Amino acid sequence: MGTQLTPCLDRRLQLPRGHQVAYDRPVMNLFDLEAFASVVETGSVVAAGARLHLSQSAVTRRIQSVENELNIPLLHRDARPLQPTKAGLEIYEHARRVLSSMNDLKSAFAEGAELSGEFRFGITRELGDLTLTYPIDRLQSEYPAP
């Protein structure tokens, strides 16, 4: 019999039954997601560390932070190159979208950049509430809607 999955987060991410997202601990941050995404892309903690200018142990701690928060393993650690678990692959896809949105946001506000048009991005409520409140408030105060 296969593992039964339980809806979680925005109902697209499925966690094995019995696993819960813990919101009573510090929430993962963009650096944690970036480290995890980098490991998935390079297949190695060492290579991800070199890419991000972090030590191997720092990358490992960041990935463990995400795993601890979600209470689920993200990587098959016995495989070389490292491979994401099924849930890890789903989380990676979410992480890529979040990181891409943040890069778009940085580009929009790069020194000397002209703002025009509409800027839209999607993010989970939990991550948005905790990481984007200040930047969005600042954006709205500096560039009010017409």
Any overview of this molecule?
This protein has a two-stranded antiparallel sheet. α1 packs across α3 (56-70), α1 (30-42) crosses α4 and α2 (45-52) crosses α3. Helix content is 52%, strand content 8%. The protein is mainly alpha-helical. The radius of gyration is 17 Å and the shape is elongated. The protein has one domain: Winged helix-like DNA-binding domain superfamily/Winged helix DNA-binding domain (Arc Repressor Mutant, subunit A, Orthogonal Bundle).
Walk across the major sheet and give the strand order.
1-2
Gross geometry: elongated
Radius of gyration over C-alpha positions, nearest whole angstrom: 17 Å
Mean pLDDT: 78
Task: Quickly give the structural class.
Answer: mainly alpha
Q: Between the first and last Cα atoms, what is the distance in angstroms?
A: 57 Å
Strand content: 5-15%
Number of DSSP strand runs: 4
Low-confidence stretches: 1-12
CATH-assigned fold name: Arc Repressor Mutant, subunit A
CATH class: Mainly Alpha
Summarize the amount of helix as a percent range. Answer: 40-55%
Total domain units:
1
- The helix tally amounts to 6
Question: Largest beta sheet, briefly?
Answer: 2 strands, antiparallel
Q: Architecture, CATH level 2?
A: Orthogonal Bundle
According to CATH, the homologous superfamily is Winged helix-like DNA-binding domain superfamily/Winged helix DNA-binding domain
Order of helices and strands: EEHHHEEHHH
Quick recap of the structure?
With 146 residues, the protein is mainly α. It has helices at 30-42, 45-52, 56-70, 86-108, 125-131, 133-142; strands spanning 5-8, 13-16, 75-76, 83-84.
